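User: Can you recover a sequence for this backbone? Please restate the input before giving your answer.

Assistant: Of course. Working from this structure:
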């Protein structure tokens, strides 16, 4: 197993989407970022990441998220919030 820590910027989600779709788009952006950087197809996000994104509602997402990524066997990646 391999572990890494990534800081995922979410500023462009805030600037380029309407306020009622920011949190769902931020989750999609995190998945895409991890697929691109880990070269894995299956990305499993922990509940803590979802709670952090939705903490202040659908429109006020955090500007960046720090994530610890654990690459497991069989092309599977698990992501957990770092804090």
């Amino acid at each position: 197993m391999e572990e890494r820590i990534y800081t995922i910027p979410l500023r462009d989600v805030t600037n380029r989407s309407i306020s009622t779709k920011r949190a769902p788009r931020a989750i999609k952006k995190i998945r895409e970022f991890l697929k691109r950087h880990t070269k894995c197809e299956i990305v499993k996000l922990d509940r803590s990441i979802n709670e952090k994104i939705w903490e202040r509602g659908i429109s006020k997402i955090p500007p960046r998220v720090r994530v610890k990524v654990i690459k497991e066997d069989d092309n599977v990646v698990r992501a957990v919030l770092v804090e």
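That completes the design. Residues 4 and 69 are 5 Å apart (CA to CA).
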